[in-house]
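Look at one record.

>
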Amino acid sequence: MDRSDFTQGMTLADAQKVLWAGTMSDDARAIMDEHVAGLSSRPDYDGIVSIADGISWAKAHPGALNNPTADNTLYIDASKCNFGFLSTADFNEVGKIEPQNLFTNENLAAAAINPFVTATVYALGAVDMILLDRNQRTVQVVNNNATDYDWNTGGSKKRDTFIRINNTLTGINPQIHGFKTYYYGTGRLRK
């Protein structure tokens, strides 16, 4: 499919209209058709992944973090993320990779009432980001090990405690459960 023909959340029928597969065998075509048919049932189909979706995905794909594939990686649209109280003032320079901590008291309070803040803070925590334009408040999430959905312990005492309690309550074992994520698109900060 040509990139310009893709729309997040497009129907299967619309995707099949613009899908170009070139010359391929019948077996390869059948595999591709099966893959395309399953896209709408993925938790990332709408570009955002809830906490429940992430936990379910991890449990359904044990070992995915250590053996990543295109099919067991989740793809998240940065334009649908809510970065809470992170602002352009938290960035020193435009165009430079900078570590950002989304696991703040302000964001945790906001997460209690906003599921998009919850999903973003839960998934990212501490993450590398790039401020693209200070006036437009646009950012890019840097895809590296910090974007792994892995429930690793460590970091601040508050975060470590949260992750340990979360792992106990949800049955997550960080040695088994976890997966790669890929953030695409441009996010926008509130201020």
